[in-house]
Amino acid sequence: MRIDTLSSNNAQTQGARRRAWLQQHSPQHLHECAALTLRALDLRPPATSRGTLVLGAGACTEIPLADLARRSDDVILADLDLLSMEQARSELAFAAMRHAVRLLKCDLTGGISPALHRLLAQQRWSDLVSQGARAVFDAAAQCLDECAIPDPPVIDGLFPGDAGVVISSLTLTQLFSYPLLDIIDHVQQLDPALVGEQERHHRYQDAAQSFRTRVILAHLHLLRSLVDNGGLIVLLSDIRGFAFNVTGTDHDAEHRRTMPLVPRVFPERVRDTFAIVEERRWEWIADLPERDKPGRGYEVVGYVLASNPVRTQQQA
Q1: Which end of the chain is more exposed for a tag (fewer CB within 10 A), N or C?
Q2: Which residues face 206 on adjacent strands?
Q3: Which residues contact 232 (CB under 8 A, 6 or more apart)?
Q4: CB 315 within 8 A of CB 258
Q5: Domains contained in the chain, number
Q6: pLDDT, tens digit (0-9, with 9 covering 90-100), for 238-290
Q7: What is the CATH number of the domain that holds 199?
Q8: Are 49 and 74 in contact (CB under 8 A)?
Q9: φ, ψ dihedrals at 215, nearest 5°
Q10: 294 exposed, middle or buried (CB, 10 Å; 0-12, 13-18, 19+)?
Q11: Considering the entire predicted model, what is its pTM?
């Protein structure tokens, strides 16, 4: 399962070295992530819990962990990648800060990837492959439709209403993309010639989009369940990816191709679930183009959200 490779992948894309790279090539990305995080801390009502929770924390590459530790009674980092979280905590300069940070290794989906893996294992794939691409992707679509998605996930070590600020740190698209990639990996093993056929299979595309939406809703409901009454949520998520071939043309529509990452209903679902206190959009570069591969970047939306309406400083 792709989720099993999370730690090794993160080792290449997170941490202090990666932060320095982003500071050089995508400084706005770091600025916006930090600004929204600090905004939520500023707006947190005095009567609300002083605990802060970061979901999908990893190595806190984009999250100002030192500020969280200084301005919270305790900070919980929650992620499946324990090594990256340990790295983030070790970078804090003072022992008192490190002692305030607790690490929780967990699957934020509540076990979607293993559940889908079990459904895939029940199919008679050799018979399906002999029937062609339609049979294979019909079966894959059925697995997606039948895959149980805990809504919201119940995560040992996290308790309802326990944090005054809850941060979802660029993890939302991973929650559904890893299981979907598991299906493509499985098809690749069955018959490499079938890879790509899913793009022309409408039933599979509909099932995949419904799967994405259900996972997103479950995550939004998880955020709502974990925040204290009157508390605030910071939701950072990639919403569209793009590839470009010439350095310096990443903002030029003629030199890049884009790919949506979240369903179109995503902003509507956010508005249905929360009151939007602040919203920002920006882009960041993940990789520069090289001779044999294009550069990659992402469009991001960042929110400060409240379960109950909150007056901003401008409105006060």
Answers
A1: C
A2: none
A3: 40, 43, 44, 164, 165, 166, 277, 304, 305, 306, 310
A4: no
A5: 1
A6: 999 999 887 654 555 566 789 999 999 999 999 999 999 999 999 999 999 88
A7: 3.40.50.150
A8: no
A9: -65, -40
A10: middle
A11: 0.92
